Amino acid sequence: MPDKLQSPTVVNPNFLIPVNPAIESYQHSLLRQTDHPVLAEMEAVAEKNNFPIVGRLVGVFLEVLAKTANAERIFEFGSGYGYSAYWFAKAVGEKGRVICTEADLLNKDKAEHYLSAANLWDRIDFRAGMAQDIFAETDGLFDICYNDVDKIDYPGIWLMAKDRIRPGGLYIADNVLWRGRVAAEHYVDVFPGWTEAIIEHNQLIFNDPEFDAFINPTRDGVIVARRKSA
Q: If 63 and its partner were Cys, which of 11, 69, 87, 182 is the partner (CB 3.0–4.6 Å)?
């Protein structure tokens, strides 16, 4: 049995890169260039304005997960201007629905512009407001609950969402490695308490007997938890 791994001691957690950039470049080279041109526009806006999006590799991963789960009803906690919704909307098909939530009305307008251009807006139910409030006002089970809100809220979102996911459905959350801070003995956080909240969130999921879970380390880490079938 190998020795137990020790947590690295770092000052700047950005040196903890889960996936070698050369590997990610290779992954990008394998992607088929079949997506709508508006996707590149959305990515350019994110780069110009330093707006956080999941990026192309994670986006394709989300689409594959949604198709694998035969998802037709998805709830997004935090949607920005619709980048992740683009991938989910592609997966759910013409009869599916992605409920998006976003506090910034300007982002809702941008999402409508981009997703309309991609002929996906009719699959979107975009609601302005706090994701938690909107979720509480929405009935029924979901095939997927996707979490990408402020990280301090991650544990609470998990506790809200987990019982509203159908058996065999998925809970997905972005940024669960938080630029390596979750594995660092010393780190500088973006906002106080965010790293601790992500650590708690991850532990809650992996300790829940009703779910099978795994972290894909691509980009900033994506956790996928499948609710076990009855």
A: 87
CATH number of 51-227: 3.40.50.150
Q: What is the dihedral of CA 24, 34, 125, 80, to 10 degrees?
A: 40
pLDDT digits (tens, 9 = 90+) for 165-219: 999 999 999 999 998 899 888 888 888 999 999 999 999 999 999 999 999 999 9
Q: How many CB atoms within 10 Å of residue 39?
A: 17
Q: What is the DSSP letter of 167?
A: E
Rounded to whole angstroms, how far apart are CA atoms 189 and 195? 7
- The answer to whether residues 151 and 194 touch, using CB atoms and an 8 Å cutoff, is yes
DSSP 138: -
Give the containing element (helix H, strand E) for 200: helix 194-206
The pTM of this model reads 0.91
Cα–Cα separations (whole angstroms), residue 157 to 6, 72, 105, 152, 173: 30, 21, 22, 10, 10
Give 24's contacts (C-beta < 8 A, 6+ positions apart): 57, 218, 219
Report which DSSP code applies to 80: T
